[in-house]
Amino acid sequence: MSVLVYTESENGKFKKNAHEVASYAYEVAKQLGTTATAISINANSAGDLGDFGISKVLIVSNEQLKTFNAKAYAQVIAQAAEKETAKVIILSSSADTKFLAPILTAQLKAGYVPNVVSAPESTSPFKVKRTVFSNKGFAITEISSDVKIVGVSNNAFGSAENKTTATVESFDPSLGDDTFTTKSIEIDKVVGKATIADADIVVSGGRGLKGPENWGMIEELAEVLGAATACSKPVSDLGWRPHGEHVGQTGKPVASNLYIAIGISGAIQHLAGVSSSKVKVVINTDPEAPFFKAADYGVVGDAFEVVPKLIEKLKEFKAQNA
Amino acid sequence: MKILVCLSNVPDTTSKINFTDGDTKFDTNGVQFVINPNDEFGLTRAMWFKEKQGATVHVATVGEASTEPTIRKALAIGADEAIRVNAFPVDGFFVAEQLAEIVKNGEYDLVIAGRESIDYNGGMVPGIMATLLGMNFINTCISLEIEGNNATATREIDGGKEKIATTLPLVIGGQKGLVAESDLRIPNMRGIMMARQKKLNVVEPTSSKNVTTDVKFEKPAPKGKVTLVDADNIDELINLLHNEAKVI
């Protein structure tokens, strides 16, 4: 009766969030007095999951599963849970996993709690803490079903090393013909660049930047920091930047280590969406901008003067600390 | 084509969030309720299906009588008929089971729900509903075209987007992109008057039970004071981010 964790991989290698969910699964397993097993689809090996407390890795190698398919992936996880008689399943908060989670929930008649920020408060009854009201509050939620599914927030629990030796077992799920009823036609994805979902640093621009032609310095700052670029809601509504960059309550949530807001005043919806970021820096001409009340560090000044200076100084800093 | 748009009744995005009854309940005092923004994009997309492809559009919500102004707004925007399941939406699984019952009885071809509600952020209702009904499902949907029985959708993925082909019957979890913010509609006087004549059916819930319970709420810890750095002293900002915050 181990704890099962779905560890996502891409091109055979585990994604960054795999370490965090593995660490979380180990913590839950410890509390329940059992071990943690990972289920993985088309990963090349167990990788370093053993370093994060995973005792066993089930690896599915299947050409049909080369491209993500929510229904098929949910079936794989459901069958792995059955094989391991797992009563607790740990998932990440990636877009793909949030897609398959409700399918898995319905298949297993489970209780599913997403956006969980810390280890269970107790395991009997099973209670977890999650964000609600788009990060404006927290709830302690009890799961009363037999099978429990916990979706762990990005960058909240963190990764913790627990040296274990992971054994590898291949797992061959049975997937019926009625599984692949949605077909991926085309994937348009930025490669080699950090995404808002998994970047350590996010650099975000608002209406204070006056127009899309001024985004060059935002992109350059992001490049120097190895950061993802984002924007406020008005900027995406004006069509200055793509919708995929909109962060806030109705856009994407941000849970990076560092969030730099440039020319963003800080509407309550925006602040809610980025509040899970650990450290927030604001650069704005208006010292009364609400963002200064939510930020850790602030610079009152014109972005067109401050940002180029910041880029130059960061380049010097990077050169010295390389 | 028969479409059901699922609506959640949520606090307006500008709401300050407070809790009451010893932090066990959301404090609705002074809170303005609206159609969940992710659902409203879907409702507008459904209106286009109605106007351009002759679809029939119904809306459904799971909520107590206090949610009726939100449903009336959807009727004023142009939905043909509404259904309210007379129950407090205790958790996502419960809501999905109630809506699945409506879909089954109404024989809908397409069900449009929001990818998540902005209050409890569960993000599970459309996916559970689709699975219970054996319908196809696409989440975080940012564009949707239907031709006959075939659907082409685009979904947002981490760092990009994916185009998907599937068939009806279909459930989507929609969001901004299905239509743009500027496409959203404000009900006009004629719409509001017509909405009064439209059917709003109230049905009692099925006997399903919740599997999760919020036992207590907390507000985030108050934020410490911001450290201001002079615009002429960017070296200091880098120093603080490196040595104090340790994020670069």
Characterise this structure.
The complex is a heterodimer of chains A (322) and B (248). Chain A has 322 residues and is α/β, with parallel strands linked by helices. In chain A, 28% of the residues lie in helices and 27% in strands. The termini of chain A are far apart. In chain A, 58% of the residues are buried. Chain B is of the alpha/beta class and 248 residues long. In chain B, the strands form 3 sheets. In chain B, strands 11-10-9-12-8-1-6-7-13 form a 9-stranded mixed beta sheet, sandwiched between helices. Chain B has a two-stranded antiparallel ribbon with strand order 2-5. A two-stranded antiparallel sheet of chain B has the order 3-4. In chain B, strand 9 (136-147) and strand 10 form a beta hairpin. In chain B, helix 3 crosses helix 4 (125-133). At the A-B interface, helix 3, strand 7, strand 9, strand 10 and strand 13 of A face helix 3, helix 4, strand 9, strand 10 and strand 11 of B.
Main attributes of the structure:
heterodimer, A: 322 residues, alpha/beta, Rossmann fold, seven-stranded parallel sheet, five-stranded parallel sheet, 28% helix, 27% strand, elongated, B: 248 residues, ETF_a/b_N (chain A)
